Amino acid sequence: MLDSAMAALASLADPSLLIMLLIGTVAGLIMGLIPGLGGTGAVAILLPITFGMEPPQALALLIGALAVVHTSDTVSAVLLGAPGSASASVTMLDGYSMAKKGQAARALTLAFLSSMAGGIIGAVGLTLAIPLARPLVLSFASPELFMLTVLGVSLAAVLSRGNIIKGVSAGLLGLILGMVGTSPTTAEERFTFGSLFLGDGLSLVAVALGIFGLAEIASRASQRRGEKQTISLGGGWGQGIREWLTHWTQVIRGALIGIWAGVLPGVGATAGTWMAYGQAVATAKDKRQFGKGDPRGIVGPESANNSVEAGDLIPTLLFGIPGGVPSAMLLGMLLTYGIQPGPSIITEHLDLMYLIVWSFAIASILGALLCFLSVKQLAKLTKVPFAVLAAGLVAIMLLGSFQEGGQLGDLWIMIILGVFGWLLKSTGFPRAPFLIGFVLAIPLERYYFLTDSLYEGFDWMARPGVMVFLAILILPMIWAFIKFIRARRHTNLDDGHRDEQPEDDEAPLKNSTWSLAASGIFFVAFAAALISSASFSPEARLVPQLVSTGGLIFSGILLFIEIRRRLRDRTPKADQSISEEAEVILSTQPAKAGWTLDARFALKTFLWMTGFLALTAAFGYLIAVTIFIPAFLLIVARARLKVAIIYTGVLYIVLLALPSLLPIDLPQGWLNTLV
Amino acid sequence: MTSNKSSLEPPGVSPDGTAGQAEQTEQPDPPKHSRRTILAAVGAFALLGTATTVLGGSLLNPPSSTEDGDFSGETLEFLIPLASGGGTDTWARFIGTELTNYVAGRPGFAPVNEAGGEGILGTNRFARSAKTDGTEILVGTASTVVPWVLGRSAVKYSFEDLKPVVVNGTGGVIYARAEAGVASVQDLINRDTPLVFGGISATGLDITTLVAFDLLEADVTSTFGFEGRGPVNLALQRGEIDLDYQTTSAYGSAVEGIVKEGKAVVLMSFGQLNEAGDVVRDPNFPDVPTVAEAYETLHGKKPSGEKYEAYKTLLGLTYTYQKGLWVPQETPEKAYELLRQSSEQLGTDKAFQEKAAKVLGGYPLVADTGMADRVRDAYKVSGSVRSYVTGLLADKYNIHVE
């Protein structure tokens, strides 16, 4: 074994292999930077190039790209609040908060180092897993996978940052949204309103980019000036590395969770990364800083999302079961070389297996190094006025999200969810549970039904694996419940006042008409889901009905709280026992009544996006960009004319060149069909 | 490309004229631009974009000339109605890349994934608005064939309106878990407890296997909802289910090993349709009896009747002629023939066959002169077959096709 490992390492000294690895790494980094493309884009662009290469070269190229996509997708998440991929939205929570405090370089340093470590640990895991993979995968039967998804969904409570009712409501709504499409058990269409387009379910990229990315753009597009304070690295790289080293346990934990999530078919990178975050929060003694720039919130998930890719290679190579689109493409490539994945790959192609391991590790280091060296330059991006960046970001994110299925409908969904995401964000609903609910909806239902129909009664509950999960689940739940009761006692019936949450700048529209409306939307959505699921067959109906009933209860409580507060706010002086603090809150936030400047600006931005998409639908993407970008830059961002002209010109050239350089299609409009 | 370069200089804009506000950017909010500036800039760029789209459309893609014996300067656009990364996608990209080298004039290759509705949306779109000059090619696969066979109302295409350029088959085997008490085909009937078959969805590729079980009168119950065939194979190894099938390309990684270890038993292969439309042994599994032979072993007579007819139809559609490249029926004969002959050359090229052995799963690319007729026969689905299949789904699996 060691011999082949060393032989594989020696073969990497071959310059042609090294060059391929380097090209792959750079391509992966670039594709990771562009929101919406990610690993799928990286492999898709490189795959046609590999036809005609020798297997080692081709593998070095693809693995190089695959290993680093999740290193660079952090950049836009941290700097701009627009995640480069669905799983990068996890890093965004704390990374972006840190960047907003002027510590972008610190966040990026932590993220890159963690990515690198995650990649290396992933590669080691890949090596060790070769003999262990089969028993590991086989020991995870449907009941264990079901419990795993339950655990994932229950993280919604952990991730809801102090407001469990809002967090659970958001998680449940995410579950409902995830069930749009074909039911996994009965193959009937649910919540599609007869639309074939919705039959495949909503695209994860569109949902993640909408709920996080577009929402962020809308709430910040009013910033016509860049960050004033200069971003310093704060003591140089040495300090960054030293700080990172203090979190080494998080790195290892995150990476292990990542490998594990990658090995199990059906869990996926996004859910795996969330779980890494969830465990970091759940096991931390002091949770207050999470979501506000806690380094642990960056380190854990960043290690995880790189090691997921390594973990994913295990079932891909050993069972021929890819866990995601990129590894599916890799599988396809192996087949074109006549390399048959399966248990025998270890005996027949051990050298290639080790080549993959080494390539993964080297690419991880190389990718992190390249990113690390550019931290300073990258961090300068925050000096550019956000409104100026927003114009290009909208164009790029919509283009990125279009690539997955080539459907304009995905983009409309993205904008609608953008508005919804903005509403959630501004009214203090955590969005993380929403996304995790969305991702896990179908696996949860799938494995529930498989468990139910393959095992008799509740026999499966007695399986040792299941019991471990039950323990992990129930103990923190009890703890959370105790804390919840305590917290409520402390708040003394005053819901607007939370002593451990001075983060109302994050949610400026909390306790306003807007949050009342948000609660109303939740309530109506759950009610509608409950009513329309009545027409499904019994099997397809069960889970949606349970979820929407639960949602009705939680959103009902929310609605009740909101209405009660409004009634009380109307007569604030009648009750003298309301603490003075509450009055202070009321008086310092006079604009809460409703139509604030920010809200107006955000909604206007969404109108701009809608206009952009309408232009695309009518005239195609190129014309839409040449109209939208200069108009947005001049009117909204008030950029200098020169900036606007160069900006649009560059984008125009890029759009012209892109389709022939990369496997990217521009959305076609009605006009294109005429020409 | 020349037209692009000349249009790079935006016409009608005076670049430096209004940039005088430069110094004010450090102040709180930059001032508004005058309406004239905005209109001029946006208008100029809009013009540029429109010009590129309109001119670029016809200059970059001049009207095709595919009937002149070569495809030089053209681009073959493959419409893949499924998301990138799957088996069909890999197949199409591989074939496309290779095929374009064989087509005279060496056209470009542009795979386009248009996913949605499990392949139905993209195929609908193709049927509605594909170019009929031979440059736009549909990739057909079981995902789009089965809903058409079932007559789903969402399907707006018909394979009878399309012409096959090349087809590529696949095959598969049905195997069982040894520990479930299965040693041979005989153990499928007269059981104390039925065997559990693990499926993805009754309205997908699984349908052929379900019809085979119905034909054999096998004592089988089915659990659907698995994510793919790989997870079903794992579930069988874990003992959660007893019966599974795998296609030929997955056989090596999923089945061969556990059969050697004695954990699983191969029961039968689906077989292949020969030119006369009969079920014959699969060249990749020459020693494995087909479903038809299994019927004889179990029931002592040759299979016949509506169930067998349905099985043969589905075998042709979902295995023997499973994947294919299609063009609209109206495609000019010359363009069509050029594509077909190029595919035939590709399929018979020894170097390609070697290279493609795994991607094609051990089945040849078929594009000979008689292919179109055979495919047309195979893709004729009689009313009785359709009603039997929808009836089977409704009665046994409580699935009502709309």
UniProtKB/TrEMBL annotation, chain A:
Signal peptide: none annotated. It holds the Pfam family TctA. Keywords: Membrane, Transmembrane, Transmembrane helix. The keyword Transmembrane applies. The keyword Transferase does not apply. InterPro entries: DUF112_TM. Residues 18-435 form the DUF112 domain. The chain crosses the membrane at residues 21-47, 107-130, 136-157, 164-181, 193-215, 317-340, 352-372, 384-402, 408-425, 461-482, 516-536, 542-561, 606-637, 643-662. PANTHER family: TRICARBOXYLIC TRANSPORT PROTEIN (PTHR35342). This is Membrane protein. It comes from Pseudarthrobacter polychromogenes.
From TrEMBL, chain B:
InterPro entries: BUG, Bug_dom1. Residues 1-34 are annotated as: Disordered. It comes from the Bacteria. Belongs to the UPF0065 (bug) family. PANTHER family: BLR1237 PROTEIN, TRICARBOXYLATE-BINDING PROTEIN. This is Tripartite-type tricarboxylate transporter receptor subunit TctC.
